[in-house]
Amino acid sequence: MSTGPKTARFRFSAMSRRAAMTGAALAAMGTLAACGGSDGGQAAQGDMAKGAPEGAKVTVVEYASVTCGACAGWQEQVWPEFKAKYVDTNQVRFIFREFPTPPADVAAAGFLLARCAGEDRYFEVVEEIMASQREWGQGIPPAATLSRIATSVGLSEEEYRTCVTDPEALAALEGRIQSARSEGVTATPTFFVNGTRVPNSSMEALSAAVDAELAK
User: Fold this and answer.
1) In the chain, where the domains are located
2) pLDDT at 104
3) Alpha carbon separation from 31 to 23, 46, 178 (Å, rounded)
4) What does the alpha-carbon distance between residue 188 and residue 198 come to, in Å, rounded to a whole number?
5) Rg from Cα positions in the chain
6) Which tens digits make up the pLDDT trace of 143-175?
7) Which residues, at least 6 apart from 144, have a Cβ–Cβ distance to it below 8 Å?
8) What percent of the chain has pLDDT over 90?
9) Could you tell me the pLDDT band of residue 35, with boundaries at 50, 70 and 90?
10) Contacts of 157 (CB under 8 A, 6+ apart)
């Protein structure tokens, strides 16, 4: 039996009710970021990383959201070059940190889904959700996107429902957001290189900051 947009939206509403409530609470506390664009270099609980191992000479931290258009743009336009130059060569340790932007329920559910997919597929899911943002402007609801991705990583509908409503996972996400806020993060994407905020997210600005640290 086919699942239409209305059915998908209903299922998402039921599965993400707790995520939506969490997002509303975070918004009320002023913790939700604006999509646009402290110490951001220290290891934190829940970090997802690529590239060089912990303790690397240079650590780059990105705060981003799966619902942030600017983050999706960076992912598509800058990340491939940055990854090839610094991450694949193990010159830097790249850390991705979650900071949801509106719509809060979608962002929260997306991040929870990425973690439920497993550490080895976390980045794959995050990147897929960002790449799918263009679908939302064409009438495809985010609920359908997340449901499709959940299926692609092997999660059943029940597992997906459990994933995005798990109280402990939601509490951990709230903790990560609070930590980001305490470091002065207010917008996404935001980048730190060895604890120093980079003025913008261009390849030029990131390369200048990274190369300066590598040269020390």
Assistant:
1) 5-214
2) 85
3) 9, 18, 7
4) 12
5) 17
6) 999 999 999 999 999 999 999 999 999 999 999
7) 5, 8, 9
8) 76
9) confident
10) 11, 147, 150
Cα–Cα dist 172/166, whole Å: 10
Judge whether 101 and 35 are in contact, CB under 8 Å. Answer: yes
Helix, strand, coil % (nearest 5) of the chain?
Answer: 55, 10, 35
For residues 193 and 60, the answer to whether their CB atoms sit within 8 Å is yes
Strand ranges, E, within 66-156: 93-98
- Whole-Å CA distances, 193 to 2, 41, 63, 89, 210: 47, 7, 12, 17, 7
CA 101 from chain center: how many Å? 10
Q: Can you spell out the DSSP letters for 143-175?
A: HHHHHHHHHHTT--HHHHHHHHT-HHHHHHHHH
**pLDDT tops 50 at residue 111:** yes
Alpha-carbon gap, residue 79 to 90, rounded angstroms: 15
Task: Evaluate if pTM is beyond 0.90.
Answer: no
Q: Which CATH architecture has domain 5-214?
A: 3-Layer(aba) Sandwich (3.40)
Is residue 30 pLDDT above 60, yes or no? Answer: no
